[in-house]
Structure formats: C-alpha cells, structure tokens
Amino acid sequence: MTLFTAEGLICAMAAADDGRKPDYSSHVHRAYLRWLKTQGLQAPIEVQGDGWLIGLGSLWSQRAPGITCLSALEDVRSLGVPAFNDSKGCGAVMRTAPVGLLAPCDQTFGLAIELAVLTHGHPTSSLSAAFLAAALQWLIAGHSLPSAVDAAVKILRSHPGANEVLAAVEAAQALATSAPASAAQLEELGAGWIAEEALAIAIYAVLAAPNIEEAIILAVNHSGDSDSTGSIAGNLAGAAYGVESIPARWTENLELRDEIATLADDLLAARNGILGLSAAQRSRYPLFPH
After folding, report:
1. In this predicted structure, what is the pLDDT of residue 278?
2. Is the dihedral of CA 152, 231, 143, 103 positive or negative?
3. What does each C-alpha distance from 236 to 121, 132, 239 come to in angstroms?
4. What Cα–Cα distance (Å) separates residue 87 from each residue in 19, 124, 227?
C-alpha cells in the first residue's frame, strides 16, 4: 500500500501539471482501490485497471493484508470520503511515508491525516501517520532524527486528541536514552498492533541503535507486529541514514527492487516539479476524467 500511496500522490501531481487541481485524496483513494483488486476484491464503485503498479504480477498476492484496510475499501462508495469505523490499527502509519517525501512542508501533517482516514477512523491512527510524515519531512531536509522527532512533537501538540500519540512518542524518546537498546526494552512500548505503539517502537529502535542495520534488526525482533514496526523503522532510518547505508545483502535480491527504485525516482521528480519532462513517467501515472 506504500507503493500505491506513492502512485496516487504522483497521479495527483501529474494532474496538477495538466492544469487541474491536485485532488490528493481522490487520486490516492483510487490507487487504493486498484490495490484492492490485487487482493482479489472489488469496491462498490468501479475503477479503471490502469496505472503501472496494478500490472505488476508480483503484487497480485495476498500477504496478510490488514483487515481494516480491506473492509474500509470494500465499502467505498465515493472517492475521498473517510471510512466509517473507529480503528486505530497501524496500517495507515505503515503506508504514509510517501506523504512525508512529497507533500510541501506546510501541507504534510494535514494531508497525512486526510489519507489515513480513508481507511482508519480513530484520531490516534491518523495522528500517528501524520507524525511519521512530518518527521520524515524534517529528516529529508537534513535534520537529525532527535530534532525531527522533536519538531513533529511540536506540531502534534497543537492538534486535539493527540494525548495517546504524544505519550507513546515521549515514552520512546525516554526509553532510548535510559538503557542499552534491547528487545526487552522495546516491548515496554507495546506490541505494535495499534498505531501509536507501532510508531513508538519504530522511533525507539532508530533512536537507540547506532546504525540502520541494528535499528531494523531491533525493530523486527520482538513478539508483536514486527513487520509493521520494521516497516516504519525502515522509513525513519532510511531517511536518516540514506540508501547507501543499507547493507547490500539486504537489497541485492529484494523483490521488485527496480520498480521500487523507479517509483522513488518518479516521486523525487514530482517533488522537484519535473515530472512532466518525461513521457515515460507520465505514461505510468494516468490522468483521470475531471
């Protein structure tokens, strides 16, 4: 869903290049419905099977997709409309990194919330997703991880209903400086099944570990929702340390490596306002009727 989030955001930027209003929520929602098709399911409203991700055979596979995401998307009757549930699962946080990489700084927090509520209705879920997007925005601007987390905390404090997320993040910050990094310490923050716990575990792992490899190993070696916490930690560690810091043995056999790199390059092009220069790029991100 991270890949489809990026695809939807780039489609919105392509629409802006074409002189249209960049309706992020509708374009990303449409991308999520394409993802839903790859899971063998269909929403009440039909979406075109275009866009290049839906044509990648490897993505047509169920790999324990989140129940909340599936049920929310199966019920969609209008694009851009929030889901009607009270879920604070971590699925919205896991997929939100492209927002922090693409959205203008002053729009990052609000846009992440707007996209999170497409599937997860609880404020703790959407605020956790927005926190991650904001922290990533600060990291790619060159700030250190502690500074990026502090900056995101400052933004979070201004939003109502943020107490659960604030408490989880502050617990992660405190734990990261109180003792040597360990799985036992990490599990004091929870199991990661819900949004604020997954976010806190990822923040702890990256703050407490000295490099990207140890951060990811720490983030996934616990008895809870380790794929989710590893994913979020990877977002933070990747932005903090850079792609060159990832061990080569982790990437050389990575599934869809070339496609992921292409999508990342396109995201950067969209961020820099040069997406329209390449016909190949534009063909990957179709424009939809007004």
Report:
1. 74
2. negative
3. 24, 8, 5
4. 36, 9, 19
Map residue 146 onto helix, strand or coil. helix
| Residue 263 maps to a domain | yes
Report if residue 166 sits inside a domain: yes
pTM (2 decimals)? 0.95
Q: Residue 139 belongs to a domain with what CATH number?
A: 1.10.4080.10
Using alpha carbons, list the distances in angstroms from residue 159 to 24, 152, 193.
22, 11, 23
Whose CA is closest to 119, among 223, 233, 5?
5
Partners of 76 in beta bridges: none
Rounded Cα gap, residues 237 and 218, in angstroms: 12
What pLDDT is recorded for position 290?
47
User: Is 37 domain-assigned?
Assistant: yes
> How big is the CA angle at 122 (ends 46 and 147), to the nearest 5 degrees?
110
Domain for residue 279, yes or no? no
Q: For residue 284, what are its two tokens? A: 């990957």
What is the Cβ-side half-sphere exposure of residue 77, based on CA atoms within 13 angstroms?
Answer: 2
Domain that holds residue 179: 2-272
User: How many independent structural domains does the chain possess?
Assistant: 1
The residues that bridge with 89 in the sheet, in sequence order, are 194
How far is 88 from 122, CA to CA, in rounded Å?
Answer: 5
Q: What SS3 class is residue 120?
A: coil
User: CB of 189 within 8 A of CB of 182?
Assistant: no
Query: Alpha helices of 157-256 — where are they, by DSSP H?
Result: 163-176, 183-186, 195-208, 212-220, 226-241, 248-251
Q: Compute mean pLDDT per 10 residues along the chain, 290 residues long, and list them.
A: 95 77 89 95 84 93 94 95 96 97 87 98 98 96 96 95 97 93 92 97 97 97 95 97 95 94 91 77 71
Give 7's contacts (C-beta < 8 A, 6+ positions apart): 31, 34, 51, 52, 53, 263, 284, 285
Task: Return d(Cα 76, Cα 244) in angstroms, integer.
Answer: 40
